[in-house]
Design brief:
By secondary structure, this protein is mainly α. The chain contains 9 helices and 2 strands. It has 2 domains: about 10-75, Winged helix-like DNA-binding domain superfamily/Winged helix DNA-binding domain (Arc Repressor Mutant, subunit A, Orthogonal Bundle), CATH 1.10.10.10; about 85-240, Four Helix Bundle (Hemerythrin (Met), subunit A) (Up-down Bundle), CATH 1.20.120. A hairpin with a 3-residue loop joins strand 1 (about 65) and strand 2 (about 70-75). Helix 2 crosses helix 3 (about 50-60).
């Protein structure tokens, strides 16, 4: 399932990507326990510090829960009770969402330009695979679509070739947290995101940075509006 991390880029981010791919491919399922730290060090050929950094990122993304004395377990992000596992570090207000998206627009609009210029064939295949998986799933599995959504955006930033951008992006997704998850639960929003991801991927594949830039900004504007609407909507338990 896993393989040693290549010695280019950030090692912990490489581990995060492998684990997220294993989840999206069905090799890891909700409730599964990740291998012990010592075993992961051997499998990935890295130090414990790298493994712990990767686990912190996965916890921040809501993908993994650490049970002290027991290990790391894959989350099931499904339903009103579980979206809280993607909880933000902040209590998001309308103003905070706007400010976070201003930063996200700066980061991702530039990242997609660099991705268009720097992505190799392997990167393009992975982006295409993420889009294809999202279209195949449709609205059938909200938790998997949420993970694919995060994976798509992280892969673009990773393919841009700037490790600082990658760290900033992970933190931004973490800060948006529960409100991002609620926006993805708005009927039809996930399907629209998948279609918008496809148009962004097509611009990247065409090596058209201006088109990719425009499509990314349009996508982020649509998601921001959905989040701002979801922030002020009743919580899912109040809709019943």
């Amino acid at each position: 399932m896993f393989e040693p991390v290549k010695y280019h880029g950030n090692l912990s981010e490489g581990i995060v990507n492998q684990i997220m791919q294993a989840i999206n491919n069905g090799e890891l399922k909700p409730g599964d326990k990740l291998p012990a730290e010592r075993e992961m060090c051997t499998v990935f050929s890295v130090s414990r510090t790298v493994i712990r950094d990767a686990l912190k990122m996965l916890v921040g993304l809501g993908v993994v829960t650490i049970r002290h004395g027991m290990g790391a377990y894959i989350n099931e992000v499904d339903g009103a009770g579980d979206v809280s596992r993607l909880a933000a570090l902040l209590q998001i207000s309308r103003g905070t969402v706007e400010e976070l998206f201003q930063v996200r627009e700066v980061i991702e609009s530039q990242a997609v330009i660099w991705c268009t210029q720097n992505a190799n064939e392997h990167d393009l295949r992975l982006l295409q695979h993420i889009v294809r998986k999202g279209k195949e799933i449709g609205d059938a599995d909200e938790s998997k679509l949420a993970l694919l959504d995060a994976e798509f955006h992280l892969k673009i930033v990773e393919s841009a070739g700037n490790r600082v951008l990658m760290r900033l992006m992970i933190n931004l997704l973490d800060l948006l947290g529960e409100n991002r998850a609620r926006a993805l639960m708005v009927p039809g929003r996930q399907r629209l995101s998948v279609l918008e991801h496809e148009t962004i991927y097509e611009a990247i594949e065409q090596r058209d940075p201006d088109l990719a830039h425009r499509r990314m900004l349009n996508h982020l504007t649509n998601v921001r509006e959905a989040i701002e609407s979801a922030v002020h909507a009743p919580a899912p338990e109040d809709w019943e």
